[in-house]
Amino acid sequence: MSLRVNLIKEPEQRSGSSLNAKSITRIASIVMPVALALLIAQQALSSFMLSSQLSILESQWFAVEPKQKQAIKQTARLNFNKKTLEELDGWPAARLDWNQNLAAIMQAVPDTIQLTSLRVILEAPPANARPAVGSLSRDYQLSLDGVTRVPDSMQVVQALEANLRRHPILHPLIETVTVANFAADDASDDKSSRVFTIQCKFKSPPHKEMR
User: Fold this and answer.
1) Averaged pLDDT of the chain
2) Would 90 disulfide with which of 31, 98, 136, 145, CB 3.0-4.6 Å?
3) CATH entry 3.30.70.60 includes domain 98-128+135-209
4) What is the mean pLDDT of residues 87-98?
5) DSSP for 165-186?
6) Helix H segments across the chain?
7) Domain boundaries, the chain
8) pLDDT one-digit tens code per residue, 152-198
């Protein structure tokens, strides 16, 4: 028979594990503050580096900002000048030779008619008839006011209307010619005096494509 006697009192007995709660607590009390200190140091270093980079970027921005503002102003001025140049370039193709046209109108007016007013109106085309974006067009309307003091006043005005429509210079340019008004001349004591208005609508010139 075997007899085993334990001579170590129960409070003095050790745990079978190499680590006990007291050891873990002791280790944690040392490791945790060290780890926390390292983490704080890392965050402080990262914050310092970011602050340094921000200072560098701010100094670079302060150096570049005036140049950038100047570049924005220059770009806006350049775009404005380009639009102005496009408008000016479009005029030669969209304008009419009024020196030649006025001379033709003088040739078309009979001696029995006195013109009292000549107006050229630049009209904006209707919204549904406007050229595509990026092109330029000019639509003109000519209005002639006059007076005639001959017995056959209506025939004389109709002759002027026909002359304008058939003139070799005006014919390719004019779309319509209309006697818009024909009435007695209230400002004259001559009973045969008549005033009239003739309106001529010009064809739209070829569209000038804008760059």
Assistant:
1) 78
2) 136
3) yes
4) 66
5) HH-TTTTTTEEEEEEEEEEE-T
6) 21-94, 98-108, 153-166
7) 19-94, 98-128+135-209
8) 999 999 999 999 999 999 999 889 999 999 999 988 888 889 999 99
